[in-house]
């Protein structure tokens, strides 16, 4: 397992003084990026060979959000590949080794010359070592798009939401979905299915469906294509604010 340690910064917390959901996602994806950089197959290397690992889907289960100032350890490992996909787990633990969050994820290897997915070869995953055992949790995969939903306010993609791939950052889709649905409390489980990358200036149209503590938000572009589908389950003692619909 690859691991790095950190301390929750004030700038990463919300009004409750705890790490935000977006902050949690950033820690997990940063961990995989740090591993790639340390293994010599980071962003610059991938640019040189015209490849990119793109997140296809992930499922995150959160036991507790750490508070400002807490020391945490974030870990990741790959557990296999098949066809165009590679599979990776993540964990976050507190200073005492207690599990704060865990995640399952599915990635695909993109050929930047053709713009098409490429079969994952042995040399693509060799730097990450021997695959480890998969976490005993539900796998990341497809998020079902509800047949009926309420339309939310359109969102125009701004520069601060774009990453080095010139697409909307993975965490930003979740932030857009939470704002659109008016979710004001802590999310216990998150499942995101990334369909089509949105870029600067695109307009995303949220479709919002709720059932109890569960909320599904589908983000369409102006061509009615699904860019991302996000399913969230709130913790039992949290509420949904009055969002605009």
From TrEMBL:
Residues 3-128 form the Acyl-ACP thioesterase N-terminal hotdog domain. InterPro entries: Acyl-ACP_TE_C, Acyl-ACP_thioesterase_NHD, FATA/B, HotDog_dom_sf. GO terms for molecular function: acyl carrier activity; fatty acyl-[ACP] hydrolase activity. Transmembrane segments: none annotated. It comes from the Bacteria. Keywords: Fatty acid biosynthesis, Fatty acid metabolism, Hydrolase, Lipid biosynthesis, Lipid metabolism, Transit peptide. Residues 159-220 form the Acyl-ACP thioesterase-like C-terminal domain. Pfam families: Acyl-ACP_TE, Acyl-ACP_TE_C. The keyword Ribosomal protein does not apply. PANTHER family: OLEOYL-ACYL CARRIER PROTEIN THIOESTERASE 1, CHLOROPLASTIC. Belongs to the acyl-ACP thioesterase family. This is Acyl-[acyl-carrier-protein] thioesterase.
């Amino acid at each position: 397992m690859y691991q790095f340690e950190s301390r929750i910064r004030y700038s990463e917390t919300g009004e409750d003084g705890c790490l935000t959901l977006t902050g949690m996602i950033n820690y997990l994806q940063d961990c995989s990026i740090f591993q790639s950089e340390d293994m010599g197959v980071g962003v610059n290397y991938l640019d040189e060979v015209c490849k990119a690992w793109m997140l296809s889907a992930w499922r995150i289960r959160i036991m507790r959000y750490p508070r400002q100032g807490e020391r945490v350890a974030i870990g990741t490992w790959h557990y296999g590949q098949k066809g165009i996909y590679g599979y990776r787990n993540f964990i976050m633990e507190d200073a005492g080794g207690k599990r704060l969050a865990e995640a399952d994820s599915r990635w695909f290897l993109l050929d930047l010359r053709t713009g098409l997915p490429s079969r994952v070869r042995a040399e693509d995953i060799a730097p990450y070592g021997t695959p480890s055992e998969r976490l005993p949790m539900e796998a990341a995969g497809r998020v079902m798009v509800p047949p009926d939903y309420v339309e939310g306010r359109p969102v125009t993609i701004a520069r601060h939401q774009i990453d080095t791939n010139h697409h909307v950052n993975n965490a930003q889709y979740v932030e857009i979905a939470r704002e659109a649905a008016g979710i004001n409390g802590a999310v216990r489980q998150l499942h995101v299915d990334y369909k089509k990358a949105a870029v600067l200036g695109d307009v995303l149209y949220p479709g919002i469906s709720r059932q109890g503590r569960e909320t599904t938000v589908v983000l369409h572009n102006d061509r009615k294509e699904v860019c991302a589908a996000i399913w969230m389950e709130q913790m039992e003692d949290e509420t949904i604010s009055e969002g605009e619909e």
